[in-house]
Design goal:
By secondary structure, this protein is of the alpha/beta class. The protein contains 15 helices and 17 strands. It has helices at about 5-15, 25-35, 55-65, 95-110, 115-130, 165-170, 175-180, 200-210, 250-265, 275-280, 305-315, 335-345, 365-375, 385-395, 410-420, and strands spanning about 45-50, 70-75, 85-90, 90, 135-140, 155-160, 190-195, 210-215, 220-225, 230-235, 235-240, 290, 295-300, 325-330, 350-355, 380, 400-405. The protein has an eight-stranded mixed β-sheet, with helices on both faces. A six-stranded mixed β-sheet has the order 12-13-17-14-15-16. α12 links the parallel β14 and β15 (about 350-355). α2 (about 25-35) packs across α4 (about 95-110) and α3 (about 55-65) crosses α10. It starts with 6 loop residues before the first helix and ends in a 6-residue tail after the last helix.
Length: about 425
């Protein structure tokens, strides 16, 4: 059978080939990795956690780049185009390069079935090896222990936070989810944890395998000042660090995760104080409290679980103004829509429920009904994000803000509308 000749055709094939979009387990991925000879000769920092992974990867990528390294960064999901997931030297790769990588994985897998994410993870590592990168930053897709990224041993593994999400795969408690996320740790290697209250299961697993555990509030300490902050990692002091562009004290935790990881791998990846400060100052991950100028101002945030929504609510509370806050919410059907809405109830004056397409998408009227049952009062529904956002923009005054949240899909659709691509 002939192979696809475009990136879109490859992605369409991968989306439909495997009977399950998510199939946790490393055996199949490990077999294909071995067949392809994918044995990285560069340091790897793996980043897991319920929330904060994308921001932490952005800090790591920026700091390492400012230190002069050729960095490969693999993140997911993407907002607008698949090449956002794989960057080398801060740049996306061409469609032709991705096509070549997918073809290489296809040749290596034989008859072994792979999911979309598994195929993409192996393709990313193939691209990194071909580009001769000097360091890799890998974001876990889901969980950790059985995620495809975990087929590659991390020189340092980070868990940013542990909360309820993807319960159908990871379990219904923080204890169960913490154990899954701890699966990215390795014996004798640094394990950085910046959740302020990590589950005992996560700590116990790290200790049982002999990982070098560094925890926020213990080996890692954050001292916040007015315009700068200090991160202490063991007996090393990283002082006069700039505040991240993204607001919220929890962003200091994400930045501290990056600082701590680079501090403990400094023998393989030495980083100067200047590069540390410059990288933190310029890291700007898309879709995380991304403020677009108005009027009205629009804030894009991929928050899709109550933990992330609480952080978003804190950021909104810290930006008081005379206007109202209008929220465009679109979510997947397997997410806790009621919990997200309740977390933001004190900050939102009007709700616009937006439907999302796809097999996992939740219709606008069904989302509105979930929110009403959660006690949110009046919620207006639209079949898609474009309609909900356009209605919110029409209603908003010059001093109002519009917050778009609930999913990467929601933010992506909003970006299309705001750039003109989604308007009629």
């Amino acid at each position: 059978m002939s192979q696809p000749d475009s990136l879109d055709a490859w992605l369409a094939l991968l989306e439909t080939r495997h009977p399950s979009a998510i199939q946790l387990g490393l055996e199949r991925v490990a077999q294909v990795r071995a067949a392809m000879g994918l044995d990285p000769d560069f340091p790897i920092i793996t980043v897991g956690g319920t929330n904060g992974k994308g921001s932490t990867c952005a800090y790591l990528e920026a700091i390492l780049a400012d230190a002069g390294y050729r960095v490969g960064c693999y993140t997911s999901p993407h907002l607008l185009r698949y090449p956002e997931r794989v960057r080398v030297g801060g740049l996306e790769l061409t469609d032709a390069e991705h096509i070549a990588a997918f073809a290489a994985v296809e040749a290596g897998r034989g008859g072994i079935p792979l999911t979309y994410f598994e195929h993409g993870t192996l393709a990313a590592m193939w691209l990194f090896r071909r580009a001769r990168i000097e360091a890799a930053v890998l974001e876990v897709g889901l969980g950790g222990r059985l995620d495809a990224v975990n087929v590659f041993d991390a020189d340092c593994a980070i868990v940013t936070s542990v909360d309820l999400d993807h319960q159908e795969y990871l379990g219904d408690t923080r204890a169960a989810i913490g154990y899954e996320k701890a699966g990215i740790f390795r014996a004798g290697r640094p394990a950085v944890v910046t959740d302020p209250d990590p589950p005992a299961t996560l700590l116990a697993h790290a200790q049982a395998i002999g990982a070098r555990l560094l925890c926020l509030g213990r080996e890692i300490r954050v001292e916040a000042g007015e315009g700068a902050w200090t991160c202490r990692v063991g007996d090393r002091v990283h002082a006069a660090l700039p505040r991240p562009v993204l607001p919220g004290e929890f962003q200091l935790h994400n930045a501290a995760a990056a600082v701590a990881a680079l501090s403990v791998v400094r023998e393989r990846l030495p980083v100067s104080a200047l590069a540390m400060r410059a990288g933190i100052a310029r890291a700007r991950p898309s879709g995380r409290f991304q403020v677009l100028p108005g009027p009205p101002r629009v804030i894009l945030d991929v928050a899709h679980n109550p933990h992330a929504a609480r952080a978003l609510a804190g950021n909104l509370a810290a930006r008081p103004g005379p206007g109202r806050c209008l929220a465009v919410l679109g979510m997947l059907r397997d997410k806790d829509a009621a919990g997200v809405a309740r977390a933001l109830a004190g900050q939102v004056d009007a709700w616009f429920a937006a439907g999302l397409d796809g097999p996992r998408g939740l219709a606008g009227d069904a989302l509105a009904e979930r929110m009403r049952q959660a006690g949110l009062g009046e919620v207006r529904a639209w079949p898609d994000v474009a309609g909900a956002l356009q209605a919110a923009c029409a209603e908003a005054g010059p001093a109002d803000i519009i917050v778009v949240l609930g999913s990467f899909h929601t933010v992506a659709e909003a970006l299309k509308v705001l750039s003109g691509a989604g308007t009629a």
